[in-house]
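agent: user wants the full assembly modeled, not chains individually. Plan: 1) parse entity lines 2) check alphabet per entity 3) run joint structure prediction 4) return tokens. Steps 1-2 passed, two entities, 342 residues total. Proceeding.
--- entities ---
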Amino acid sequence: MALTPEQEWNYWDSQLTDLRHNQLKTVQSAAAAWSKLFAALLAIFGTVAFAGGLTTIDKLPSPWDVVAKVGTLIAAAAAIAATYMAARASDTLSVSDRPAIDALTLRQAVSDAAHESVHWLSLAKIAGAIAVGIVLAGSGLIVVVGEAGDTPTVPTVVAVVDGHAYCGKLKKLDGALAVRGHELNRSVTAVTPVADCP
Amino acid sequence: MAGAVWPNGEALFEFVGGQPDARERWENAVVQALDDLHSLQLTPQGGDYYDLIGTCPRCGHHMKQSLEFSTLRAKDMIVGIASDSTPTTTFQSAREAAFDIVCSCREPHDGRDADTLGCGWGRGLRVTLNLDRDLPSASAGSPT
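--- prediction returned ---
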């Protein structure tokens, strides 16, 4: 139904009255939006740690561990950006004490704010899609690649050969074990594992 | 009619909102009534609230309106007021604001609905008021 200019003004004048009468709700809405933003930002870090968390990423074989860590950072940045832009789209983040406006100016302001919100929401959707995509890809990476196997460690020992003590890592020498070039044969009287050589 | 002599107690009830000529005439008349004729006066009511009391510049009948000089709203809705009808620029100070100053007289005006007040003018005719200029104490050199 088409409105006359008088009916249009009457509507926006009533909206202006509502705006003036609901200033407290406006502030409360802003506070609620900030609260949700904080909660969402904290939850993001748990989400982008991928399926098994950062500890599992550390156990990925190279170079997948680096790929996963970089992906984590990008996903976190995208998720934070998406959360912020969605909050901006809600048009309630910033409230301040402003000069009063008239009904027709309020009409224009509401229209401009609506267009601005659509813009922010579009950006939020893109950033959110990037974050979700990376999280899913990262989770798949961990499932497919799995943890790197344990690297065998060479023991360090103190060996007593012909009455002389030698300390060093066990090595293979001509088909036999050796410490610092001394074969561990029948002349060995003791072999003691140690953490480090003195 | 925008060109008729004011005040005119027999003026017809009419809506002229959004017409630049009418807006300019109404704003000038209201500001003149406040600053020069003192037929309208702003009375502080505490905080940002003021009562505008006096006679309508158009019909000369008694009118009264409550004004609030600042409102809390989403920051993205901030707009300013230009000299024409396009809201593009910012206010000069925090003590300046725009209103629909609407005649609210109870005297009859032909063309008015039974549940409506005033002579019809002021609706959609933005008027920018400045407390430093329009308060009675401001003209005495001691703005509050």
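agent: reporting back. Chain A touches chain B at residues 4-6, 9-10, 13, 16, 19-20, 23, 26-27, 30, 88, 91-106, 108-110, 112-113, 116-117 (CB under 8 Å). The longest helix of chain A spans residues 103-145.
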